[in-house]
Amino acid sequence: MINQVTLVGRLTRDPELKKTTEGTAVTHISLAVNRPFRNHNGEIETDFVPCTLWRKSAENTCQY
Question: Is the C-alpha dihedral spanning 15, 18, 24, 29 positive or negative?
Fold first, then answer.
């Protein structure tokens, strides 16, 4: 079984496309994702999620 996660957030910086020695596209990004609730001070907190994208996902993310 494969788990699937969908994150909606903002890129913290522009992604850079890199290639492995075998020529596979890869990029490392960090997504800023707001929590869907407020903390005890009434503020919305943000989580920063590191992600690694491979192949076509990496290419598309860097292009657009």
Answer: negative
